Amino acid sequence: MKNDNGRSLVSRTIEGAETLVSTEPGEIFVDVPAANARYVRVEEGDTVQEGDIRSRSAEELASESLRKWRIETIGPETVIGTDRETDERREWDREELEQKLAIGGFSTNLSGFERATVSGPGDESNGESVTVTVYGNDGRKFTQTYRPVDDTDRDERRLELAATDERVETFDDDVRERFESTVALALRNEGYAV
């Protein structure tokens, strides 16, 4: 089966949930679970570390007791990484690593956003808000809330930021730029302007 991005995907059951997993070399892509917008994507050059970014704080994950590896090669059967502290090489069975990423035994660094959803009517007459939920490659989701702008001179439905996810403020500049581009595209696709 192929998805919108041309990835070859296979269905696997991980911890009792149907999960779609990419079979392509060069990246690990796990839909967690298949019926949800959350996903995990690891590419060669990314970092994989022990611990679950979805349930632990950044401070907890910064612990020196949690190992971190730079992913060197992602093949059809195996994944090779280099320990960021010791330069020791480690080889994983690809399916084992995919499972650990899916259930939170391992996490990856946030580097991109492939999915976003827009909800709420944004009806100017009653001031209802529009919420954009953006899904990161590390399995986390981030939310921005917008309110309608009363601008009767324009044909487009204009919005302004009303509330932001605090974690967005901590993003590196390049990650923040990718996030903002994903949000803007999602809003444009729904007929909004920011």
Task: Give the topology, please.
Layout: E1 9-14, E2 17-22, E3 27-31, E4 39-43, E5 47-50, H1 58-61, E6 68-74, E7 78-83, E8 89-93, H2 94-103, E9 106-108, E10 113-119, E11 130-136, E12 141-148, E13 157-164, H3 173-189, E14 192-193
Parallel strand pairs: 13-14
Antiparallel strand pairs: 1-2, 2-3, 3-4, 5-6, 5-9, 6-7, 7-8, 10-11, 11-12, 12-13
Instruction: Calculate the mean pLDDT score and round it.
Output: 88
Give the fraction of residues assigned to helices: 10-25%
- Kindly estimate the percentage of residues that lie in beta strands according to DSSP: 35-45%
Class by alpha and beta content: alpha+beta
Number of helices: 3
Give the low-pLDDT segments. Answer: none
In the sheet with the most strands, the strands line up as 8-7-6-5-9
- Major sheet size, sense and barrel closure: 5 strands, antiparallel
Radius of gyration: 19 Å
Distance between the termini: 36 Å
How many β strands by DSSP?
Answer: 14
- The SSE string, one letter per element, is EEEEEHEEEHEEEEEHE
Describe this structure in words.
Strand 7 and strand 8 form a beta hairpin. A five-stranded antiparallel sheet has the order 8-7-6-5-9, covered by helices on one side. It has a five-stranded mixed sheet with strand order 10-11-12-13-14, with helices on one face. The protein has three helices and 14 strands. With 194 residues, the protein is of the alpha+beta class.
